[in-house]
Amino acid sequence: MAGFRIGRGRDNRTPQRQQAQQAPPPYTGGGQAPAPPYTHQQQWPRAGGPQGGGGHGEPEYFGEPHPQYGTAQDPYAANNPGHTQMFSVHDDPYDGGATYRAGAGPAAPAGPRLHWKQLLSGIVLRPGPTFLQMRDYAVWGPALVVTFLYGALAIFGFDEPRDEVINATLSNAVPYVLVTGVAFVLSGLVLGAVTHTLARQLGGDGSWQPTVGLSMLIMSITDAPRLVVALFLGGENSLVQVLGWVTWLAAGALFTSMISKSHDLPWPKALGASAIQMIALLSIIKLGTI
């Protein structure tokens, strides 16, 4: 029984051994003191050192922060055996503050405002960088002018309206053409606003002016090849119909790219945001049901 008490007791260490394990290592003040040896009953260092706010044996996160914690003069420096080190998520070397995230507000513009010639050519030749660079700039001037001209000429791409305009007098034909151009501008504004609203509902954070203006330009520019051919062959020509389907698919790709860059959305959500505008363009322009 005596052997059992000595070998299985609660604490079979002698008082001298306990005192030697609990006593901190001597520190002479010259240079960095060596780390104390790790023992089973080693106490956690106090955050304030010998003068810290925590009591004897408190964990370091209950005391006051030490001004020189982790320096070369600290005997309880971080990463020593038996100690812990606090870290911060704000010092991310891979995040310089320029990341564009949905819901966090628009980031800084990717470049200066493009001239209207560079804007129109960029939508066709380099759509991705163009949309990214113009995502924070309003493009009302080019959008209104191009859409109005497109709408004024679009009436000649349909057989019946073109015959009515050609057979009408000049005083009647001019107002008819102007009204059609204004109607296309208003339609582009409404459809662009719907697309912007859907993009915001899906988690986008882009501005409404660039979204609406760029959507009007995409609608007008992508249908221009079909309209040019329809002026000579008529809207019911099979070649015009095939060209209309091809340009409609191209418009869908440009809408998706624009919304993805302007609102920082993945392409499935960007495509869903432009669904209503795509359906409207298909029924009104491509299929000739105006």
Automatic annotation (TrEMBL):
- Key word Transmembrane helix present: yes
* Matching Pfam families: Yip1 (PF04893)
Q: Where are the transmembrane segments?
A: 137-156, 176-199, 239-259, 271-289
Predominant location? membrane
Which top-level group of life is the source organism from? Bacteria
Taking every annotated instance into account, which residue ranges of this chain make up the domain Yip1? 122-282
The membrane topology term of the UniProt record is: Multi-pass membrane protein
Which segments carry the region annotation Disordered?
1-92
Instruction: Please identify the protein, giving its name as recorded.
Output: Yip1 family protein
